[in-house]
Amino acid sequence: MTAMKKLIVIDGFNLLSRGYFATSYGRPEEELPVNDKGEYINALRVFFAKMNQLERQLGASHISVAWDGKREDTTRNQQHTFYKAQRKDLPKALISQYHTASTVLNNMGIHHTNVTGFEADDIIGAFSKRADENLHVYMYSNDRDLFQLLNLHTDQLFMKKKQEIHYTVDDFKRDYEIEPYQWVDVKALLGDPSDNIPGCPGVGEKAALPLIKQYVTVEELYEKLDELDPLFKRYYKKLAAGEENVKISKELAAIDPEVKEILELDIDELGVSDPELRQEVLEEAGIVKAPFGG
Questions:
Q1: Per the confidence metrics, is the pTM higher than 0.70?
Q2: Residue whose C-alpha is closest to residue 209's, from 238, 242, 187, 239
Q3: What distance in Å separates the CA atoms of residue 160 and residue 98, rounded to the nearest whole number?
């Protein structure tokens, strides 16, 4: 009988950014820790400690790190230039640690990738699409957009109120009383200011989820808009006026798992490297000195 493969897919910039801002708050760049080469390491310490911790905690057999590519190269941004347009450039000290992380991961033999035209979410979505009875995928990210990927063989781990939550498809169904694929419809109505996704103005959390519970998808909602349940009548004009925004918002919020480079990848190439090798690489990179825990 084939042993179950356990694959951790880390949302690279999500973890690296959280590590950076958590350890740099209120400190100028010149006060951040560096290695002997003068390279910043504050976010890297968090990143690799968490990666090692996840491996031990989940008994992972495989690991991959998914990185976002250049924003302007993504299909979403090329079709809708306003998408994420309000986001500021990342700090130079954070960007430099991304480059260092890439080198360290290479030296460790840990798979990591970005794919032109796609975001990290899409890469994670492609891995989730491959999950089955022989491959369990654990998504590590605080991005709730990934809820749409949850299934019997795909879980998500994220931080909430300083606690790490291990979230399954059953947890999602219990909390929201919809199927994971419907999460993108809820997001289409709500929008997402952090990504500049407009949603439907005037339709907030109190209405978005109940609407999708009743109408299943935004397409069905708009097909039946003229027969809208009296419970939602006060949202009729807002929904009618926001139809185009909702359509665009669903396009932007929907994760695209058709990433050929991931769908055709040999999962066995993503094996977990030897802990002693990883420790040695981290010491050589000046990220840690003592044996590295997490």
A1: yes
A2: 187
A3: 24
What is the layout of strands, in order, in the sheet containing 111-113? 111-113, 62-66, 5-11, 135-140, 154-160, 163-167
DSSP letters, 108-146, are HT-EEE--TT--HHHHHHHHHHH-BTTEEEEEE-S-GGG
DSSP bridge pairs for 285 = none
Longest distance between any two alpha carbons in the chain, whole Å: 68
pLDDT digits (tens, 9 = 90+) for 161-217: 889 999 999 999 999 999 999 999 999 999 988 888 899 999 999 999 999 999 999
Pairing mode, strands 154-160 and 163-167: antiparallel
Cα–Cα–Cα angle for 204, 205, 210, rounded to 5 degrees: 110
Distance of CA 8 to the CA centre of its chain: 12
- State pLDDT tens for residues 104-130: 999 999 999 999 999 999 999 999 999
Distances in Å between the alpha carbon of 17 and those of 24, 80, 88, 146, 197? 10, 25, 13, 18, 21
Q: What residues pair up with 30 in beta bridges, in sequence order? A: none
Task: Give the CA angle between residues 139, 141, 144 to the nearest 5°.
Answer: 100
Alpha-carbon torsion 72, 119, 287, 281, what sign? negative
Distance between CA atoms of 150 and 134, rounded to whole angstroms?
16
Q: What single DSSP character describes residue 3?
A: P
Q: What is the CA radius of gyration of the chain?
A: 21
